[in-house]
Design goal:
Elements (H helix, E strand, L loop, with lengths): L1 H20 L10 H4 L7 H21 L5 H19 L9 H20 L13 H23 L4 H35 L1
Helix pairs in contact: 1-3, 1-7, 3-4, 4-5, 5-6, 5-7, 6-7
Amino acid sequence: MSSGCAPLLLAGGWAIAARLEGPAYDPVAQTISVLGAYGAEGFWVMTGALLALGVCHLLTAWGLRPAALAGRVALAGGGVAAFAVVLLPAPTSGGSLRHGSVAAVGFTLLALWPVLAVGRGEAVPWGLRLAPAVGATVLMVVGALWFFFEANRQGAPGVAERLVTCMQSVWPFVVVTSCVLSRADDEARSAG
């Protein structure tokens, strides 16, 4: 349940917060952090969405027993980073080293958790196998690099950030779904 709620809460939060912010907010050129800055019209919505995202990642990490411990710890660390982003919001204008650093740690943990969670053995669910995990991590790293490129050239960091955060919030759901389907297949084989 928590893994399925994470992407919905994140995307719903930024969509509602952007609507509250009005036409002054440009989702292409501005980041999600702008929506969570003190003084932003949708501050409480974005703050609530980030807190809920952190809780979802923590609950998913706690319950995802088939995943390797290192991956579960990295996913939980991504949840804690979401809390830290809330505690250290971006300023209404300009950058913040503290906020940026915490966000970078969160991006890194959430990009690495798929590879760190890879299971061993023959009956490993699809989402915890090496090839899909490496693919997910590579896509997230490429997306994060695109975000940093866009942010430094004053391009479209909002688009890049949304793509990366969507991938990072959807992958836990993909992994959990593969675990549930794998368990159902195992039960069907043992019953038949």
